[in-house]
Design brief:
alpha+beta, two-stranded antiparallel sheet
Length: 133
C-alpha cells in the first residue's frame, strides 16, 4: 500500500527563503494541514495562499486569497486587478518550487522509506536557503 504524503511550505516572499515545512500522511485538505501543524504566524504578517486554503481568513485576518468568478457573478475591474496582483505575487512562490524540483527527489516517485523523506526534504530546503545567502 502506498501512502500519500502532503506537504506545506511557508516561504518568505522578500528573501525567498523557506521558513517552515510540514508534512502529513494521507489525503488531507491544505487548510486542515495548516491547522494541524499549529504553525503560528504573527497577525501583522500578510499571508498569501492558494484557493485550497479557503477558510484561512477566519483564522488569520491578514490573508490574501484568490477570488474566483462564478457563473452569475463576474468579476468587476477592481477584483480583476486584485487577482492579477495576487498572481504576480504568487509567481515568486512558483519559482521557489521550480528551483526545489531541481532535486529529483521531489519530481519522481519516492521509493525509499517514507519517514526519511521528511529529513531529506528539510536538508534540500537547507541547501536551497544556503544557496540564496
Amino acid at each position: 500500500m502506498v501512502s500519500t504524503l502532503k506537504s506545506q511550505i511557508i516561504i518568505d516572499l522578500f528573501s525567498n527563503k523557506i521558513i517552515s515545512v510540514d508534512f502529513c500522511y494521507g489525503s488531507i485538505y491544505d487548510y486542515k494541514l495548516f491547522l494541524k501543524s499549529n504553525t503560528f504566524i504573527n497577525p501583522k504578517i500578510e499571508l498569501v495562499a492558494d484557493s485550497e486554503y479557503q477558510g484561512l481568513q477566519n483564522v488569520h485576518k491578514n490573508t490574501l486569497l484568490p477570488i474566483k468568478k462564478s457563473k452569475n457573478n463576474p468579476l468587476n475591474p477592481d477584483k480583476k486587478e486584485y487577482k492579477n496582483f495576487l498572481s504576480k505575487v504568487r509567481i515568486a512562490i512558483e519559482h521557489v518550487f521550480a528551483r526545489l524540483k531541481r532535486f529529483k527527489i521531489l519530481v519522481y516517485r519516492y521509493h525509499n522509506k517514507i519517514r526519511r523523506f521528511e529529513l531529506r526534504f528539510n536538508l534540500i530546503s537547507g541547501i536551497y536557503n544556503f544557496e540564496l545567502s
